[in-house]
Amino acid sequence: MRLLFFNDNEELYAVKTQAISATISEEINLFHQLNVELPLNSINARDIGPLAYIAVATEQGDGYYLFKVEKPEIGDTTINISAVEKASDDLSIQDYIKDRRFDNSPLTSALDAVFTGSTWEYKLFAENTLATTNFYYVTRKAALTNIEEVWKVEARFVYHIEHNRIVSRVCEIYKFLGKDTNYRFIYGTNALKVNFSNDRTALYTAAIGRGAGIEATDDQGETTGGYTRRIDFSSVSWSKASGKPVDKPSGQNFVEIPEATQKYGWIDSSGVKHPRMAIFEFDDEKDPTSLLQKTYEKLVSYSAPLLTATSTVALLGKKINLGDSISIVRYGDGFNFVYKLRVTSVKRDLLNDKRTEIQIGNDNTVRMADRESAVINTLDSITANVDSSLSDQEARARSMINDFNAKLTQRIDSTKSSIDKVLAQNSNGPITLIGQDGQPVAGVPEIKEIRSKDGSFLINSSGFKWGNHLMGGDSKIYADEIAGKVLNSYTINSTTINGGKINGATLTGTVYVNSVSTRYPEDQKRWVVISGDYGFTYSAAGGRPGSWITLDALSIGGVDLTADQLRKIKEKCGV
């Protein structure tokens, strides 16, 4: 696994090869989502500041997916990052489409309208069929969603990166993503274990189609600027004898799939089955014949339960990608199920592909597209809280430091308060004065405590207090400053150690050594990372840690390494 970190200028500045968890959620015609959990250490805390985008190699190895970071969260021990495919943001904010109308036009004409003038290009791997639609004051993203629905195509977004820079953005358009794998899995025979479900939450056997509104006119036939009712397809007739998929007589304002009604229709009190009715709206459709066709096509996708099956790649034992078709066979006592299903969603585990989860179901991209609005609403609520500018990200970095300091101060104050409380409770009993013979001094009774008149000095059996210096019986000490010659300790939690020597020590975790050599001016400090993602890293100048990725020169012991020597060192470090 390699996570490539980019800043707002789309410059690669860090690579992460270690994470606690990392998954990509993929669905057909929905933008991918990335979720990453990193350990909280100084390197990751530093790198999260300028982070704007994360790139991950595609499973096919033909480029990268790029994700826009939405909401990094800093926890006590981890950094959680949620991100959405950057194409979602690009196509939402890169201008808009004012008014484009397509009447029985090729797919490429509509795609040109979406991508021309944006940072994206497209490649068409589907048939360049004809269809009718309109774009009116919509984002490029909304227009692409419309194309996916009208032309029945599926999109995939791929970035190409060269020399640490993004060089191209390509939207690939397919009739169907994935391929027919010819994989045949027999339940209980070749180790396939799946959970089946039938989703009946949206099941219809007939539908009314409503198109665009009809412009209102005055007595002279001039448009008034208003609209009356929407068009329908009551005037259109279909017959199976003429090659249409179902019969739909003229005057009927709905289209029905009778076979579906016989299976799933609702039953009245006399036992007669009636169609489960839906109403579909197509705001831009002005032609009744086209409206009937679109309504029927959408109805087909809702006319049977949505069959789904879930499994893991480990159980399948095959490399499975989004959109792939596989066959599932399940035999039982009195039944024999044979399903030809597509992979409709993938939750890809970047750390261990065997933990990747897939969902297999009916070829039903329409229902997925209908869920797009819910996803958009969720992402919009996240985006509203995003600090995306460089200054905002610097503020987040400062906020992280302030949070750490605040937690440290709170911990110290809490320790002080707890010791104060223990001393005040005098929980360990009275004080007894012991003489040289080891026995209580005769004539001196036990006392509760010794304290000064102003209370700044106090000793009891639970500890002592002298101004702000406290020591409690629970093995905790609080003091503004401790001065001495030798400190023997197991663990020191600290942010800064000034001066002196560290002899025979073992440094664990992420450690920085900052050179203060007079050879370099103050604003060009040299840093050395002696533990981190690559074990040993020398960073750039300018008082800021860098990495092997951007390093193009290195001096060790005052001797400049050649480019070939530097390349070999980078290879050893996994860069």
Fold and architecture overview:
The chain is α+β, with helices and mostly antiparallel strands. 22% of the residues lie in helices and 34% in strands. The chain is built from eleven helices and 36 strands. The strands form nine sheets. Strands 1, 2, 3, 4, 5, 6, 7, 8, 14, 15, 23, 24, 25 and 26 form a 14-stranded mixed β-sheet that branches. Strands 27-28-29-30-31 form a five-stranded antiparallel β-sheet, with helices on one face. The chain has a three-stranded mixed β-sheet with strand order 10-13-12. α3 runs antiparallel to α4. About 9% of the residues have low confidence.
- N-to-C span: 13 Å
**Count of DSSP helices?**
11
Strand content: 25-35%
Structural class: alpha+beta
Helix fraction bin: 10-25%
For the sheet with most strands, the description reads: 14 strands, mixed
Shape: elongated
pLDDT averaged over residues:
77
What is the C-alpha radius of gyration, as a whole number of Å? 34 Å
Strand segment count: 36
Unreliable runs, pLDDT <50, ≥5 residues?
A: 363-397, 530-537, 539-545
